[in-house]
């Protein structure tokens, strides 16, 4: 279909006398002779050699950083370093100019820009090496997710984004409405008359597709969601987004052990996929990280180089440790005794912080860790209660550098136990009638987990701010573009 | 990982003396002897033969429609019709009961339920043959979409769901807010003080990821989105959803002809994928449609049987016809002259309705049709103006039965022309500064299209109401589950 060739194909081709055309954007133009051309298909540029005597000077003046051009010529062996072939340009066309003075005001200008500056021009940043690499890796990772589940007989379910239920229990929600905010319809008692709203009731943006996915698992057996989820939390940190993508598999008849097996197998598959299919971008990102680490205090540096970190996941069995064991280890740990932890671990029941999770992974076990059987009090209502009545069949997977990457559980499949829990928490049963019904008609053991996609992209790209791994981040006071 | 086998694997296996375990839900239990077991992995049930003398009567009483059970036994050649093998049950376990009286009140009860009734129990309907088939086909289609783009070197882009721009121009939007609706913060002049809102500005749910995808196409070359989009239109029809999934590819350097090539190639790929990978579910859905057509007036019946309709797409070249030609054909057509069209075609500039689109496809050309070069007045601001100054490089793909399935265009890449159009329409330029900037720095010809995923699922499943091809439909006054 394409009349022109992609840079990715061309740089892998052999020299040939057949002419070909390549289109892309100018990254640099050295010595009035060497154009570095990039079209986004790869991190690499195609070197295009122009003999300036054959071209109009005015034309060559328009070959500036950021300009879109088409070059035609044949491929020859390259004399220069860093590429096997280069194109000997016989025809050069300017498709779209880029005014040098205006480019200077943007992140397209050829100098080092801070990540903060790049965020302000999110519509242009994908044209830089760093963001080109991140977004290609993100895309490949996304495909690997679908491929894994597809190969393993899972069905993809598009759970609703707008939800009439506020019982998902995972955090603050965004309201969705078509009511006139200047004149919100009210009932006689002063409360809001949601009957006048689009859906005739209060609606919010989903925080998780899990509950709906569970209903599908009880019909299709093995399902997964991969869609946007939302948190209206006023957290302006490098780890939080108001809008992010989440992966949530849910499997009928899986108990917690099978759930752990699934999560470990899944993560290893998608990371291995990247190691095999994104070498160039990962190599660039590893270099970038090492460069950046040089200017950081040691405590903030990456615990290991990027590729080594990915191999660390692939080569280790994830160590399975109960919450109770973990608390004992942490209580007795040096940083706890020497009060180096910000949050000291004093007793069973404490919620673990990232510092504790990282200690377990990086210092104590030196491998990825799956913690399980957490105190019921610090976990969600739908998790299956153990016979001890104080722990639930929850599991969290902990990774180096970031701590928790996966949270999952075996679900409470017993109608009476679930109903009692819902009542105790004061959740309106009418909100969850359909969820409860799945426990009425052929209920079964089932399990699932949630993985925040951007957390995983952070991990595999070695980036440190979550705003840099999603095209247009949404955070408090920021919904630009 | 699984200790039990899927029905899909088992029914394709040879008889064997090795015992295996299968878990699923009871679809029927005939003669106290034959359990039809389904686990969602396929439309087919596994026949499980129990010798009632070997089992406790009380246990067998609990084998009721909807109950979850585990059966263990070995596979033997089946004497009955409709299956090659059946399982000779040596062990039977009830995992979850389904009270017969309560099941009677649900759509799980073994009789024919209307699609309306099934919608009211969307948490259970995937456990019926029809919805199991639809949702498996939907999932496979979703995978085929990702596979096509992946194979062809496209990058997947997650464009934002919450948007600060209301210039996307595709329809009414839902407001997203965290403001207290009982007490909306106002400015001195009575207007709403959006500075107090979560994002510090007015935000809505996206109606299209196109504009953001364009910025990524100008960096990565070939991209696509596949995510939820929203319309706050009060349209209670069988064709409209307030929340639906959209596929939007966008390609740098593609002109309109290349855009048509891409769309045709893409659609044929994904439909062929289903024909090759969903035979059983499609065969069931074809039967279902034929059954349903019997009770419909002829005008409302499907123009052709399901599989024939899919082959019709695969085997025909899509006929490319300009809007102007199409208007001439329609003006001279019998239904126009005999005033059979609800909307008569009287002059150039008319917007085409589904009846006109279907006439062109089903009666006139007898093949899928791509209309192009539409009047600028009836199309969006970002479409490339032709030299005639009155038409734009838009294209719509028309299919039998449903009319428009794809809408796309070559985008206006000329900064000045785009800016003028935006000004003429009174769109606030500040909203689109970033979009305009892509035309400033290395602009290039580029094109893309949008395909409503549910429209395509409707087409390939032969269903007629769009609420039946998405797990939990959102429509006016309906956001249940």
TrEMBL record, chains A, B:
Cellular component terms (Gene Ontology): cytoplasm
EC number: 6.1.1.22
Catalytic activity: tRNA(Asn) + L-asparagine + ATP = L-asparaginyl-tRNA(Asn) + AMP + diphosphate + H(+)
Aminoacyl-transfer RNA synthetases class-II family profile domain segment(s): 135-471
Domain of life: Bacteria
Pfam families assigned to the protein according to its UniProt record, in alphabetical order: tRNA-synt_2, tRNA_anti-codon
InterPro entries to which the protein is assigned, alphabetical: Aa-tRNA-synt_II, aa-tRNA-synth_II, aa-tRNA-synth_II/BPL/LPL, Asn-tRNA-ligase, Asp/Asn-tRNA-synth_IIb, NA-bd_OB-fold, NA-bd_OB_tRNA
Protein name: Asparagine--tRNA ligase
Compartments reported by the entry: Cytoplasm
Chief location: cytoplasm
SUPFAM superfamilies (alphabetical): Class II aaRS and biotin synthetases (SSF55681), Nucleic acid-binding proteins (SSF50249)
GO molecular function: asparagine-tRNA ligase activity; ATP binding; nucleic acid binding
Entry keyword Transcription: no
UniProt KW Iron-sulfur keyword: no
Quaternary state and interactors: Homodimer.
Biological process (GO), any one: asparaginyl-tRNA aminoacylation
Keyword entries, A-Z: Aminoacyl-tRNA synthetase, ATP-binding, Cytoplasm, Ligase, Nucleotide-binding, Protein biosynthesis
Family to which the UniProt record says this protein belongs: Belongs to the class-II aminoacyl-tRNA synthetase family.
């Amino acid at each position: 279909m394409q009349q022109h060739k992609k840079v990715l194909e061309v740089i892998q081709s052999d020299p040939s006398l057949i002419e070909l055309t390549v289109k892309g954007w100018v990254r640099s133009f050295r010595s009035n002779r060497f154009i570095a051309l990039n079209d986004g298909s790869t991190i690499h540029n195609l070197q295009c050699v122009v003999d300036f005597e054959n071209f109009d000077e005015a034309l060559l003046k328009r070959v500036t950083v950021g300009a879109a051009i088409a070059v035609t010529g044949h491929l020859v062996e390259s004399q220069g370093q860093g590429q096997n072939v280069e194109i000997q340009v016989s025809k050069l066309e300017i498709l779209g100019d880029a005014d040098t003075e205006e480019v200077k005001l943007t992140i397209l200008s050829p100098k080092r820009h801070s990540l903060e500056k790049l965020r302000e021009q999110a519509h242009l940043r994908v044209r830089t090496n760093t963001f080109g690499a991140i977004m290609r890796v993100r895309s490949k990772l996304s495909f690997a997710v679908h491929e894994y589940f597809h190969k393993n007989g899972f069905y993809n379910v598009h759970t609703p984004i707008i939800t009439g239920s506020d019982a998902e229990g995972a955090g603050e929600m965004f309201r969705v409405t078509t009511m006139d905010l200047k004149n919100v319809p009210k009932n006689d008692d002063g409360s809001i008359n949601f009957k006048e709203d689009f859906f005739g009731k209060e609606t919010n943006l989903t925080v998780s597709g899990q509950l709906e996915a569970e209903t599908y698992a009880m019909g299709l057996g093995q399902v997964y969601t991969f869609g946007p989820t939302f948190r209206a939390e006023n957290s302006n940190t490098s780890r939080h987004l108001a809008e992010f993508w989440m992966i949530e598999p849910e499997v009928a008849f899986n108990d917690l052990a099978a759930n752990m097996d699934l999560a470990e197998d899944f993560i290893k598959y998608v990371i291995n996929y990247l190691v095999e299919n994104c070498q160039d971008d990962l190599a660039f990102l590893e270099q970038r990280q090492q460069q950046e680490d040089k200017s950081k205090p040691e405590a903030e540096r990456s615990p290991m180089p990027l590729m080594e970190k990915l191999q660390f996941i692939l080569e280790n069995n994830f160590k399975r440790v109960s919450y109770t064991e973990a608390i004992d280890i942490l209580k007795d740990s040096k940083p706890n005794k020497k009060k180096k932890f910000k949050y000291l671990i004093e007793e069973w029941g404490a919620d673990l912080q990232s510092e504790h999770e990282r200690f377990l992974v990086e210092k104590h076990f030196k491998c990825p860790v799956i913690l399980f059987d957490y105190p019921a009090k610090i976990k969600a209502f739908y998790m299956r209660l153990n016979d001890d009545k104080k722990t639930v069949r929850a599991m969290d997977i902990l990774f180096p550098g970031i701590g928790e990457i996966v949270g999952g559980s075996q679900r409470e499949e017993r109608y009476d136990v679930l109903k009692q829990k819902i009542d105790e928490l004061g959740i309106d049963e009418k909100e969850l009638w359909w969820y409860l019904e799945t426990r009425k008609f052929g209920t079964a053991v089932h399990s699932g987990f949630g993985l925040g996609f951007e957390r995983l992209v952070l991990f595999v790209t070695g980036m440190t701010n979550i705003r840099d791994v999603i095209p247009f981040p949404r955070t408090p006071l920021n919904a630009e573009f």
